[in-house]
Structures are given as C-alpha cells and as structure tokens.
Amino acid sequence: MILPASFFAQPPLLLARALIGKIIRHRVGDQWLAARIIETEAYDRRDRGSHASLGYTEKRKALFMAPGTLYLYYARGKDSLNFSAEGEGNGVLIKSALPWSDSLSPASSLQQMQQLNPDSKGLPRPLTRLCSGQTLVCKSLGLTVREWDQQAQHPQRLRVEDVGYTPVALLQSVRLGIPPGRDEHLLWRLIDRAEARHCTQNPLTRPQLPCHEILPGQPLVVSEPE
C-alpha cells in the first residue's frame, strides 16, 4: 500500500517511529530500487539541531510545505533524504535502511543499487552495508537534491509503501552529529532493534549513547528541547 500524504501529518517523533519498516521505492530507468527504513531521526522547528530553527529560507522551503514533501540537502557534499512532518519546519531524516527485494524490485534491482553505490575501491558493497548511512541511502536509491527536493511522492516514480512489516522492538537514542548546545540530549533517534547492527551507529554496542528499548504499544520516552 502506498502511504497517503495524510500519513505524514504526524508530529515528527511519531512520524519517525511510524516510518520504521516502511519501504522507499524509486524508479531508475526500468527498475524499481527499494529499501526498508531501519533508522530515523526526528527534527522539530523548536529544537536547535533542526535546520528550520534557523528560520525559513528558499533552501529549507520543503520543511515548511505540506506533510510528506521531500526535503533533500547536502551532507558533506552528498545527498540526504527527509520528509516534512506535521507543523511548519518539522521533518524526519531517513538515517539508514536495508535493500529490499520483492516481485517489483527483483535481484536485478539490488545489483543496480550496488552499481550506483560501490565501495571506495569500486567494488560492490555488501547488501547489509549498502544503505547504512543517510547519504548511502540516497546514493543506492538514485535520489538527488536536484531532482527531488521540494517534491511530493509520485506513484510512478517515487513512493513510500507499507508492506505489513512491524518491528518487534525499537531503540530510542540520541541523534548523531548534533553539536553541544543544539539540543543534543533529545532522544529523537529511532532504530529497528532487530537491525541495530546495520544502522549508522549501534547504541547497543556504544554504552556512551543513551538507549531505551520500546516494545509495540509502549510510549516513547519523552524528551523536549531546552
């Protein structure tokens, strides 16, 4: 099922939770490239780690557009993918994913993803590391700022789908790369616990990172901007 725009009309932390396990599918040529989201980060206009906290600009316009709008920006010169959430300036960063294969995205699509995102030696990356980072997600799926920033989903080109997957448990931790004084304490990073070893930094193996396990039906740990 393709997620409707109304799905994204949630506060950013709840949207970050809801997106875990969903499939991003992007058509490149005659192939649908796909990945299942395993890690997200929420950003609220009130928090100082958010791009929108610096105010509206044309570059950040997507965060102020309708929920579900794609906001792509360059992280160290490479493309990163976000979706706008409920409330102007709010969004969710797609932090990492795992390649997904099914009848619409067969083995040949996985091979194309590996061709788009080889390792530093030009060799195919292992599938489990192909999307283990926000810029790797975009590179493997062929998503670029130039083509997709400020765009909505397009059923025949790019869409987010619910394939019925529900994580057994989530991990809730701090976001990565947030400098001191920018609400770095916020527990606004969500990870599919079963896939934690494939996320950007596994909090289960880094005791310095606060980490809470969230079971289905349990509320998230509340943390607010200072």
TrEMBL record:
EC number in record: 3.2.2.-
Matching InterPro entries: Formyl_transferase-like_C_sf, MPG, MPG_sf
Pfam families associated with the record: Pur_DNA_glyco (PF02245)
Top-level taxon of origin: Bacteria
Keywords: DNA damage, DNA repair, Hydrolase
Family: Belongs to the DNA glycosylase MPG family.
Protein name: Putative 3-methyladenine DNA glycosylase
Lineage: Bacteria, Pseudomonadati, Pseudomonadota, Gammaproteobacteria, Oceanospirillales
